[in-house]
Amino acid sequence: MIKLDEGTMPVHTDDGKIILIDQRKLPESIEYFDATDIDQMCFAICDMVVRGAPSIGVAAALSMAAHLKKLASSQSARLSVSTFDQVKEKLDATRPTAVNLKWATGEVHDFASALLNENPTNKEFGEKVFRFAEAMLLEHLARNKKLSDFGQSVVPQDARIITHCNAGSLAACGWGTALGVIRSAHINGLKPQVFVDETRPRNQGSKLTMWELTQDGIPATLICDNMSGYLMNKGEVDLVITGADRIAANGDSANKIGTYSLAVLAHHHGIPFYIAAPLSTIDANIETGEQIPIEFRNKDEVRNIEGKPVTVIGAEALNPAFDVTPNHLIKGIITEQGVLTPPFKQSIKDALQRNCASK
Ligand code: MRU
User: Fold this and answer.
1) Which CATH class is domain 11-146?
2) What is the pLDDT of residues 264-321, one digit of tens each?
């Protein structure tokens, strides 16, 4: 297992191969999935071998780079921007909500297109593009750590925190976003305790978040998704922090289904609700959350648990994988450019500008 100080790395490269931790198998076993071939990677993203917006982005970027490198290595290869478009489209089609996917393949596309103008040999081209994608992996780690440092300012001593889904090292390609903030708070002696929503239907909370927190020795208590109101009403929650898969220019944030309900409950009980996400999760091209495409997944994920039916045969079911929390329910968005506060339209714009200037 790749276990660094940074947490468990869900994606890594090994001599040109792209290796994923198979997140479908955790926590029962740690298994690896070779996604070097682009079709294997598309399957891995769709089937959630690799999941979590930033991790999907890095995995797709590496896949695009590996595929271009492979094309470049064939004798007769004539590389063109239209080839880059096709490869990008194929990867982008795997999951619709997480914008990090399109952002990451866009970065590789831009880099490859600019490189083409320098007339490199095919070998040089392939190597440079792959190295560029590999660098994105480490950059994520640095950005997650930075946002987690900023996030400390919102975590009180001994905070009792609810989180939803998995926004840890596995989802964010190192350290984590929501869990990154919690991990840093733990290391800094703030003694956070975490209530972990199980996150039906895929149970990323009970399987992945509980696994990560247990590995780090952070006190964690598993709850069903319908228990947070009870806890909040009893005064047992100080803070809610979740990740995000896409944030609109006005701060409306899409995250794992159930996040919206949590935000409404937090608002009702006067409990601060924060989103933690890198700036690559912001989609400045869309004004509000209404424009965020919501992925609907196979209904069997709802009808079954661990492959076993939990309802009547032929039951109708609904399986939206994400919901959108409107900006007025969000106290702050924790990013690598600081904790953004309302009005988000302005603070997001400023943060993106600062980010561009710092490159
Ligand atoms: O469907 P998933 O597991 O890929 O869902 C994405 C997520 O992991 C969550 O919504 C998460 O909170 C944001 S990504 C760090």
Assistant:
1) mainly alpha
2) 999 999 999 999 999 999 999 999 999 999 999 999 999 999 899 999 999 999 999 9
**What's the CA gap between 355 and 353, in Å, rounded?**
5
**Ligand 1 center to 353 CA (angstroms):** 26
Query: How far, in Å, is the centroid of ligand 1 from the Cα of 52?
Result: 4
Q: For the domain with range 150-358, which CATH number is right: 3.40.50.10470, 3.30.420.40, 3.90.105.20, 3.40.50.1820?
A: 3.40.50.10470
Q: Which of 245, 252, 283, 323 is catalytic?
A: 245
If one residue of 166, 257, 282 were mutated to test the ligand 1 pocket, choosing by the most ligand atoms within 8 A of its CB, it would be: 166
Cβ-count burial of 23 within 10 angstroms (0-12 exposed, 13-18 middle, 19+ buried)? buried
Global confidence as pTM: 0.95
Catalytic residue check, 245: yes
DSSP state of 280: G
